[in-house]
Amino acid sequence: MKLKKKQTADTASGKSTSAGMLGEAINRRTFLRNSGITAGGAALAFTGGPSMMKKATAASTSPQPGVETEVIRSVCTHCSVGCGVMAEVQNGVWTGQEPDYDSPINMGAHCAKGASVREHGHGERRLKYPMKLVGGKWTKVSWDDAMNEIGDQMLKIREESSPDSVYWLGSAKFNNEQAYLFRKFAALWGTNNVDHQARICHSTTVAGVANTWGYGAMTNSYNDMQNSKAMFFIGSNAAEAHPVAMQHILKAKENGSKLIVVDPRFTRTAAHSDQFIQMRPGTDVPVIWGILWHVFENGWEDKEFISQRVYGMDQIQEEVAKWTPDEVERVTGIPEASLKQAAQTMAENRPGTIVWCMGGTQHTIGNNNTRAYCAMQLALGNMGVSGGGANIFRGHDNVQGATDMCILSHSLPGYFGLSDGAWKHWSSVWGLETDWVRSRFDLDSYENVGGKDVPTINRPGMPVSRWIDGVLEETEQVAQKDNIRAMVLWGHAPNSQTRQPEMKEAMEKLDLLVVVDPYPTHTAILPDRQDGMYLLPACTQFETYGSVTASNRSLQWRHKVIEPLFESLPDHTIMSKFADKLGFKDELFKNIELNGEEPVIEDITREFNRGMWTIGYTGQSPERIKEHMEHRGTFNEVTLKAEGGPLDGEYYGLPWPCWGTPEQKHPGTPNLYDTSKSVADGGLNFRARFGVEREGTNLLAEGSYTVGAEIEDGYPEFTADILKQLGWWDDLTDDEKALAEGKNWKTDQSGGIQRVAIQHGCAPFGNAKARAVVWTFPDPVPIHREPLYTPRRDLVADYPTYEDRKSHYRLPTRYMGIQKEDFSKEFPLIHTSGRLVEYEGGGDESRSNPWLAELQQDMFVEINPADANDISVKDEQMVWLIGPEGGKIKAKAMVTNRVGRGVVFTPFHFGGHYQGEDMLDKYPEGAAPYVRGDADNTTMTYGYDSVTQMQESKVSLCKIEAV
Amino acid sequence: MAKSKMSKSKRRKIALWSTFLVLSLSLALPLASYSIHWLGASASAQDASNAAVNPKSKFWKQVRGGAEGYSAVKGEGANVLVQSGGEDWRQFREGPIMKKAPWAIVGMAVLLLLYHLFHGKNRLDVNSLSGRMVPRWNTFERMVHWITAFSFIALAITGISMLLGKQLLIPVLGPAGFASWAGISMSVHNLIGPVFSIGIALMIVMWIWHNFPTWTDVKWFAKGGGLFGKAHPSAGRMNGGEKVWFWILMTLGVAVCISGIIMVAPIYPQINIPFIDTSRGIMQQATIIHAVGAVIWTAIALGHIYIGTAGTEGALEGMATGYVSEEWANQHHDLWFEKMQQKGKVLLPGEPRGAQDQAGTVYNRQTKHTTT
Amino acid sequence: MARMKFLCDADRCIECNGCVTACKNEHEVPWGVNRRRVVTLDDGQPGEKSISVACMHCTDAPCQAVCPVDCFYTTDDGIVLHDKNLCIGCGYCFYACPFGAPQYPQQTSFGARGKMDKCTFCAGGPEDDMSQVEYERYGRNRIAEGSLPLCAEMCATKALIAGDGDEVADIYRERVLRRGGRPQTWGWDTAYEG
After folding, report:
1. Which residues of A127-140 are buried (b: 16+ CB within 10 A; e: fewer)?
2. Among A370-379, A899-908, B216-225, B244-253, which is the least confidently predicted range?
3. What is the C-alpha to C-alpha distance for residues B235 and B249, in angstroms, rounded to an integer?
4. Is C181 on the interface with B (CB under 8 A)?
5. Contacting residues of C for B67, CB less than 8 Å apart
6. Distance between CA atoms of residues A46 and A766, nearest Å
């Protein structure tokens, strides 16, 4: 059934015909051949001329009449909505795709990307074999040779420098199991230099939101938006980035909900709004404070909610008072009436929800932005209620899961962080000695925190946004033994990162550059290298299986649709190959069975089930997720609750937290912090994460608790001791007691503490207030700071950025050092970026899909007609867009009123060109995407969030010149 | 019989005028339809601006009017939701072009038949020929003429097949049979069209100098071209009728050729073809011009063919061999014949012809000089 | 007998092009041929609206009227199909069609456009239902399989509706009633004045 390496080799030597003749079971190749003959014969029988379809494609994937069809359920691999995919497979060939009406998430719907996922089964432009750069030419190598050569070099670097000199850049395209395994893999290799795209997508959200009320995720769901009375979008273009979510949004709107869109562009989403507010990029905090100004001015805030469940709103109010309508208009460009109308709409239509995406997160003050959004929802009392919440739309299909599994340089899976306790907990889950795990790391210290030298194992590694500086920065400036010398870009589009010219330089400086991806990606063509570079073909998620977490925290199971194409392998198999070569395979797979080289996915799920107590990834056993997939037709489209059937009362995909062990059958939590349900039924309150009091103020909830809670007030998080104090300890079984002794709800591997807390109606993580003031952050109260590259020099004095920092995530980080220089004279236009519906991420996958690529064939830049006239540029004319750091791109001008005056917009999906030049010949043969163009991040500039190192790719400066 | 003899000249006049009427009507009718359309369009536009209606209707009216937008799909007309030109095009094609214009061909054929039956061939006035020959068309002229002529016949047959085959040929050949004939017709039409166009172009270059109207032509027309009655009006190398035919060839012919070239251009060219606009609207107009022009032209060509073959004794011989008899030349192109005599171009009986062909060409140019 | 129709609810369409790629996917339509497309009017300006359009399977179909070889036929379900055995690729249907539905696979000169291709309402062509030949020439025959056109079935926001004209009209009427006079588009002050 497989298209294996062996068969390919056979074909090359002309032996393939014998397979069919020997009467073996029909394989994909013979199937293709036979159908080709059928098609040819049929065409001969007709004299009507050539058929419209190209015979080659028709023969390879057309449905065959009379051949048994298997319908396989999977989940779209593009965005985080999590649309169900129904694949029709005949003899191992993906021949058809049907709408998945049973899925309560999409109800059969797809956007351009989802409706074209079957192309993954064609894979014409895939990276087909392991490749190696020899004298500047791509040369085919065997998997074994590639692994040996790469492994030897890594071990050498480990010896000469330290494990920290190898950077493991993972992916939000992994399924949960692969993501978890990847984080574990990096830990056992001995480094925290591991990260993935969440860093440059929603890291500021996760940090801001988790520090406000406990968990850093979308609080409700796409479906729940149908209950909203008002929807407030800021920096989100759902119609292009999450099109299927629009189904729920437009249904809500038809039911009377008001839709407000705040954006620098008049987006496709804005076109469907009741009110569109055009803002200057990078002024989110003033916009929100401008709205809250009217809320407080008119007493529209929810005073009861604030007094019971919010800490620090008074300090927010003080800051908001500074943002008078005049000042807001001066900074954001939005007139008073507009924001007053928005405030009134939000006040009069409760519950209302807020949605934000990259437009809010990708800023030097991204964490301030996200916390300002939270503050608005808290002030309006919109949290913890169906129809309300902070509906943060995540990007990639499994970026939520990969974030939860913490392919992040600052945490172990489940947001445990990097403390000794965290290492102890996970070592125990892995069945390894903590000391052995520690011994894998460079035990020296390079950073002094609070007067103590902290070793690398407890210090965050470099973030993905900054790996280039990890390579290029002087060694003394880097808080680890040596610079980064080897990069593994595993499912990462480098063109989604800013500062491309410097990235090119970094890629050229590395000793070793490894790409693991189904496509060669922009990495293959960016550096001018002669050797020391490898491309390893990974298969797509349709060629393997496992669980995936949608943005609404629901887990879904992907079944394998087809066997891996060409010589590609599933990511977890490649990890096992690496672990084998690097010498820690036994430790990595201690609890996980290996099927040949391929780890058994379900064993990985069960392993993380045993450790992810913090966020309730413990109840979702592979069996339960698969059952949900099977019976997804029984779930309600709005509530996501099963009505009847074997899963009656459970929520679709067991949205985390799904407390306790799978046996405890927690139904999942559809809406976070919703006190109108008992915790056992998916209710929750704000998490007690920040202590019980601060400067004499109670941080626990007051008079607010979930339905059925036996403690009818705030309470701290549960530990073994607290259970004993409450007299609930004996509710644990003897086995549970043995494991729970001395533990808390996060580390008790029996799940007993969580079970007993829930049995008494309590949330295991306590019941506290949300904090509108995050005193541990650089700006406890979110304040406005001008972007590093701002055209408003008049505002820099009033709203300056931060001081430069010596070491943040092991690297010096500049702020004022850049902002103090005025670039706006030479580079007068604001440059912002965003998505197109046809493409995703760096776009290598979608630009290689002809069905999508045909729809967007040119890199373009949106320019306001007034600006276009100023520089005498006509629509569809080719222009240079030049950034203040020297990068330039060639793009087609699209003169449109979509962008405001002084703002230009580029999509960030293009790649394959560099500074105007097509790099077609640098791709391995036959693996170049159909559509190539300049990557807009070639001109995007320096700038990183003060908490998470999120890149500032939503606001920079540029100038445009006609080519 | 006496009665018929009495009214013979009157009948001829009626026939002449009715031919003229049919021709001018077939030209004018299409325009009439356009003008009605224009009037209608402007009237409805006024309605829309005056009335206070819901904004959606204005929006949709614009859409209906072919408003352009954006589409990720690239291709001719892809950014237009609704184009109304197609409906006008369809009405015009189904109406005037298919139902009315072809009658011009039938009408012409009937007229010629009647003329031939009642009037008969225009014979030479003399009964015996001297045998002296005058070189009239050189080899190149004849080659161009005949290639163009045969191309025309092929184009006319295939063109009419495609225009009217749906009504006339499907009942005979059946859908599959006609489809394959239509397929062949289209290929033949598309391949021969360019050959024909080159022929037309060459004719224009070769003959335009001989076809500027003169007083002689006015007198020639005043006498009805000698079509009726015994008198032969004077004419140079080209008589008035031939000049009219030439100018029809020149105008309608060029229109048909250019519109034809537009029609065979790709609908969505990957690269812009210089000087050719292949937008859908232009293509629609091209097919209209092509069809109207070709049908009228076919009708007139029937006349030309008749006059050149069955209608005039000795005319075909001229284009077939390049030489006409002294008597024919004198009867039909007396002024030209005189000049040929003066130049000594008239061949004695039995004199070899080959050398004179070149002479003929030189003579043409000399004539040009001498007349001006 | 049912009369099959498409309807695109312009208040729902978000120009995600899902219908376009669903069609490409279902019928393996080659590059350059687009049986369906989305047109956005007033692009980037208040009042912006997107509408998905393909062959509308007209009752008095202009393509059918002008086709010189009469290759079009209307099925019992009211679907306008054509026979590629008869089509000569003359381009007349493209000139006549109000919606720009007819597409041509070849774009060479001398009028060689290839057989016209257009939306079949996922109902194949004159060949045997669900046969290999039918698939190669016209794509999949979903109507014969008992399904509706994939573009509509996969529409992201259920803007594109396909099916029996009466039922399609009922669905749309219900939506319009639910929306009342409230405009669904930024830039439209009211849906109906007064």
Report:
1. bbbbbbbeeeebee
2. B216-225
3. 20
4. no
5. 41
6. 75
Nearest to B326, CA basis, from B138, B140, B124? B124
Among A26-40, A563-577, A768-782, A918-932, the least confident range? A26-40
* Interface check C99 vs B, CB under 8 A: yes
Token pair of A378 as six digits:
């808290």
Per-residue pLDDT at A479 exceeds 50: yes
Q: Please give the Cα distance from A585 to A597 (Å, whole number).
A: 10
In this prediction, residue B24 carries a pLDDT of: 61
CA distance A520 to A132: 11
pTM for this prediction: 0.88
C181 touches chain A (CB under 8 A): no
Residue B341 confidence (pLDDT): 80
Contact C116, C92 (CB under 8 A): no
d(Cα C162, Cα C122) in Å, to the nearest integer? 11
ipTM of the predicted structure? 0.95
Q: Which residues of C touch A276 (CB under 8 A)?
A: 46, 186
- CA dihedral A686→A692→A697→A699, nearest 10 degrees, is 0
Asked whether the beta carbons of C6 and C56 are under 8 A apart, the reply is: yes
Q: Write out pLDDT tens, residues C98-116.
A: 999 999 887 655 556 788 9
First to last CA, chain B: 51
- Pick among B59, B70, B74 to test the A interface (most A CBs inside 10 A): B74
CA distance A473 to C148: 59
Query: Which residues in chain B are contacts of C189 at CB distance < 8 A?
Result: 55
Which of A180, A82, A225, A198 has the alpha carbon at shortest distance from A553? Answer: A82
> Does residue C135 belong to the interface with chain A, where contact is any CB pair within 8 Å?
yes
The mean pLDDT of A296-303, rounded to a whole number, is 96
For residue B72, list chain A residues with Cβ-Cβ distance below 8 A: 838, 855-856
Of A457, A487, A460, the C-alpha closest to A472 is A487
- How is chain B split into domains, by residue range? 17-27+85-120+139-321
Q: How far is A333 from chain C (nearest CA, A)?
A: 18
CB A76 within 8 A of CB A83: yes
Asked if the bond preceding A351 is cis, omega within 30° of 0, the reply is yes
CA separation for the pair A469, A943 (Å, rounded): 12
pLDDT tier at A18 (50, 70, 90 boundaries)?
A: very low
Q: C-alpha B138: how far from its chain's center?
A: 23
pLDDT digits (tens, 9 = 90+) for A169-201: 999 999 999 999 999 999 999 999 999 999 999
Q: What is the pLDDT of residues A354-367, one digit of tens each?
A: 999 999 999 999 99
Residue A306 has pLDDT above 80, yes or no: yes
Backbone angles phi, psi at A933, to 5 degrees: -170, 175
CA quadruple A150, A152, A155, A157: dihedral, nearest 10: -70
* Mean pLDDT score, A284-303: 96
- Least confident range of A97-101, A318-322, A509-513, B340-344: B340-344
Q: Which fold has domain B17-27+85-120+139-321?
A: Fumarate Reductase Cytochrome B subunit (1.20.950)
Q: Is C104 on the interface with B (CB under 8 A)?
A: yes
Tell which C residues from 8 to 37 touch B, by Cβ distance under 8 Å: 15, 17, 20, 32, 34, 37
Total beta-carbon pairs less than 8 A apart between chain A and chain C: 189
DSSP assignment string, B272-332: PPTT----HHHHHHHHHHHHHHHHHHHHHHHHHHHIIIIIBTTHHHHHHHSEEEHHHHHHH
**What is the rounded CA–CA span in Å between residue A904 and residue A828?**
10
Tens digits of per-residue pLDDT, C23-48? Answer: 999 999 998 899 999 999 999 988 89
Q: Which chains touch C (3 or more CB pairs under 8 A)?
A: A, B
